[in-house]
């Protein structure tokens, strides 16, 4: 006798609820990664944010 596998049901139900969050999270991560990948070492040296965090 085959046992019931709840994962497909659970995944389908949760995907319907969580896809906006997951999609937004992926898009935001992609944008942040794209923006920070363009920084050069000179940009990082001149950054107030980086300088402030190196002091600590």
TrEMBL record:
The keyword Membrane applies. The chain crosses the membrane at residues 20-39. Keywords: Membrane, Transmembrane, Transmembrane helix. This is Mitochondrial ATP synthase 6 kDa subunit. It comes from Zea mays. The lineage of its organism: Eukaryota, Viridiplantae, Streptophyta, Embryophyta, Tracheophyta.
